[in-house]
Amino acid sequence: MYKCMAVNAGSSSLKYKLFEMPEEQVICSGIVDRIGHDDGIFKIKFNGKSHESVLPITDHAQGVQLVLDAIKEYGIVKDLNEISCVGHRIVQGGKYFSKSALFDKDTEAKITKLIPLDPLHAPAHLVGFHAFKKALPNAISIAVFDTAFHQTMKPEDYLYPIPYEMSEEYDCRRYGAHGTSHNYLAAKAIKDYLGGKPNTKIISCHIGSGASLCAVYDGKCVATSMGLTPLGGVMMGTRSGDLDPSVVDYLCDRSGKNVDEIYEILNKKSGLLGVSGVSNDTRDIEAAIKKGDKRAIMAGDLFVRRIADFVGQYYVRLGGADMIVFSAGIGENSSFFRARILAAIAPALGITYDLAKNEELNHKEGIISKPDSKILVAIIPTDEEVMIARDCYKALKGTL
Ligand code: AMP
User: Fold this and answer.
1) Marked catalytic residue, from 79, 104, 118, 146
2) Does residue 129 share a domain with residue 26?
3) What is d(CA 383, CA 387) in angstroms, rounded to the nearest whole number?
């Protein structure tokens, strides 16, 4: 039996779960949320108890310290050395990683080299890695890459229509992200909802503060919305998603800002936050929409439109769909936005859905389509952490 810590450090949150492996039993779990906000949230759950505090959380390093201090303080483990392995979710593995790897100097150097491809997450991953490494020097560390699941895409799905020599020489192509989540969701959808059948067609919608959609055929990724970096695809909390590439040059020219400054804006000040001027958080956007705030209404409409358009694209790409899955922070918790996305896609795709079920299943797993719907629609809470813990266990057994 091994204790394995799965760490999922996102742009504004750090989720963690401590597992007893191979039993996949969760010893404790929680989230450090709204990192960078004065009203940051720290949550820990263990033995059926839960503790929550609201406090200013400046950065990820402080988040890691909160987690380890709580694990010690609540006596969840007698000694932090009982934790044998820490598995870190890494968004971008570029050309280097098609599966999980030991987080050694070489892996760290490659992830550092890949920062230009993921300026938003990679630094947070490395901060998380170092903070855990310092606190738990005897545990082994592994890196689990979100790009690995998308390696099955065909060139027509991952290439950009730029000179092929440039794609090759600079590794400039679509890599996608959230692969660990899409992999989990597709596998669970097939097993628990589609009777384990082969050749199933699933559109998986991981909609959190970062968001991506994935078209999955027979359990394998055929297309995904994020691109070279997690800036591409649908509109997100603070990220723009897809744009005409000329926008960057045009904005530099008109605003006098340089390319780096414009990318900072596209990564951190765009999306729901940029359009609404209210917040990157759908809870705040929903409240502002209900008060009639015009920019929040526009942000919400744009957010829904971009997601609906990708669902349509993937419906065509797959030649239909057996199932649409909603997951992640917004997909699991926001009945308001789920209902609006469903309203946008249902007439064209022959979906019928139950609004009461949609409300009732907030934060829970289950089906929200009606029995006569042409496509099964379900909410499945994602579990990237168990996928990470499974790879931790493999690493401890020497079978990674
Ligand atoms: P994630 O990146 O998957 O952790 O998602 C975080 C985002 O999910 C937040 O920024 C919110 O926009 C959204 N979210 C989280 N909890 C709720 C909730 N209870 N109701 C509505 N939206 C939520």
Assistant:
1) 146
2) yes
3) 7
Are 326 and 360 in contact, with CB atoms under 8 Å apart? no
- pLDDT at position 2, please? 94
Alpha-carbon torsion (101, 104, 109, 114), positive or negative: positive
The residue range of the domain holding 219 is: 196-379
CA of 226 to the centre of ligand 1 (A): 19
Answer whether the bond into residue 22 is a cis peptide, omega within 30°. Answer: yes
Whether residue 184 lies inside any domain: the answer is: no
Distance 331 CA to ligand 1 centre (A): 8
| Number of independent structural domains in the chain | 2
Candidate of 11, 330, 336, 379 to mutate for ligand 1, largest count of ligand atoms within 8 Å of Cβ: 330
Q: How far is the CA of 380 from the centre of ligand 1 (A)?
A: 15
Within-domain flag for 181: no
Assess whether 25 and 134 both reside in one domain: yes
The answer to whether residue 146 is catalytic is yes
First to last CA, the chain: 17
**Phi, psi at residue 126, to the nearest 5°?**
-70, -40
Which pLDDT score, from 0 to 100, does residue 61 have? 82
How far are the Cα atoms of 15, 37, 76, 338, 387 from residue 41, in angstroms, in the given order?
Answer: 11, 9, 20, 24, 25
Residue 363 has what pLDDT?
A: 84
Distance CA 132, CA 361 (A): 35
Half-sphere exposure (CA, 13 Å, Cβ side) for 287? Answer: 6
Look up the pTM and report it: 0.87
